[in-house]
Amino acid sequence: MLFSNVPGQLEIKNRLRRMADDERIPHALLFLGSEGVGHLTTAVTFAQYIFCINKTNGEPCNTCPACQKINKLAHPDLHFVYPIASSKDVKLSLDVITEFRETFLSKPFMNQQDWFNELNAENKQPTIATEESNNIIKALSYTSYEGGYKIMVIWQPEKMNTAAANKLLKILEEPPDKTIFILVCNSAEQLLTTIISRTQLVKFGLASTDEISAFLQETKGLNAQTAEYCANLSEGNVREALHIAGEQDSNTALLEHFQVFMRTALKFNAFKINPWIDQTATMGREKQKYFLTYSLQLLRECLLLNSGGETLVRARNEELDFLKKFASFVHMGNYELIVEEFNKAYYHVERNANPKILFMDMSLKMNELLNIKKAG
Ligand SMILES: [Zn+2]
Question: 376 in a domain, yes or no?
């Protein structure tokens, strides 16, 4: 990992480099920032920079033994605590460290949802339990393997219950020797003020559109125009930017799918709609949901186009060309009703409705709604 793998945050990176270079590292740091700014990745990179024996030009070398271990999230002096969905078999962060490594390494800008999806625990309450504090004490009570610092990264400390938070506070008040705590937090309001006051604050702002655009061009090989489009939509959230970039390809196919749907629904034709329904049915639930969300976005843009709000429209290229032609079919007389149909379909998809019946019913409804004439 390199500092340059996180877009923007130049001032913070320099501050962290200085801390390590001058060996004046506070024993507890609070990395505070909104989701997707890259504070977890920065925390890991900072640890790597501290442990690296061959750092050059303000970056870890990425090849020394320490770097190699960090790149697998398997350095013996780097510890992690994070929210888990506790169960009979899972009581501590350590019990799911393999899953945590995999998720982080494939999604360095991961959020809570990515993590819980990986655990198949979407509906569970993420918590850092009291037992975890005992584990922290234990992990830090040994001397470090490599003779240097021991670093404890606590991801989302705001998910600690009160007892856990109080125990952590005790540790922060009397920290073990040569220990660095990095608290990677999204929302400081949920942290004990006494914990905050024991840490040095490192506040992450949002990366700029230019920074994210450059990052996407470099890491994903996007052209400047597409990168800027994704960066704009992401509003400073790198995770979101990567997500949107990944969707760019599939959106072209989805646009076509939407076009066929609208065309066949407008002049309802049972022969033509059937292949479309079959195709939709085989998409699978997640893709169906995404298609419906994407369609809702297009419909909203139609309304914007009709009311002269073209500057607010996100669509571009072929999407925009299509919407300009299609927009006149969506107006105040049917917009709400159409949106309701799409939302209803989303609801039923989530609850495992039979897709063939669902989308057949929907296309009949759409035939009715799209043919409502614009008033006046
Ligand atoms: Zn190194």
Answer: no
pLDDT of residue 117: 87
Q: Name 229's Cβ contacts closer than 8 Å, sequence gap at least 6.
A: 316
Ligand 1 centre and the CA of 350: distance in Å?
A: 47
Instruction: Quote the ligand 1 centre to 73 CA distance (angstroms).
Output: 14
Low-confidence ranges of the chain (pLDDT < 70): 248-250, 376
- Long-range contact pairs involving 306-310 (C-beta distance under 8 Å, separation at least 24): 306/330, 306/331
Domain membership of residue 375 (yes or no) is no
Neighbours of ion ligand 1 (CB under 5 A): 52, 54, 60-61, 64, 67
Residue 250: the pLDDT is 66
Give how many domains the chain has, as a whole number: 3
| pLDDT score at 376 | 66
Stated pTM of the model? 0.69
Instruction: State the pLDDT at residue 62.
Output: 94
Burial of 241 (0-12, 13-18, 19+ CB in 10 A): buried
> Does 105 reside within a domain?
yes
Q: Is the CB of residue 163 less than 8 Å from the CB of residue 130?
A: yes
Between the CA of 304 and the centroid of ligand 1 the distance, in Å, is 52
Domain CATH for 111: 3.40.50.300
- Whole-number Å distance between alpha carbons of 251 and 260: 14
Tell whether 200 and 214 lie within a shared domain.
no
Residue 324 belongs to domain spanning:
241-370
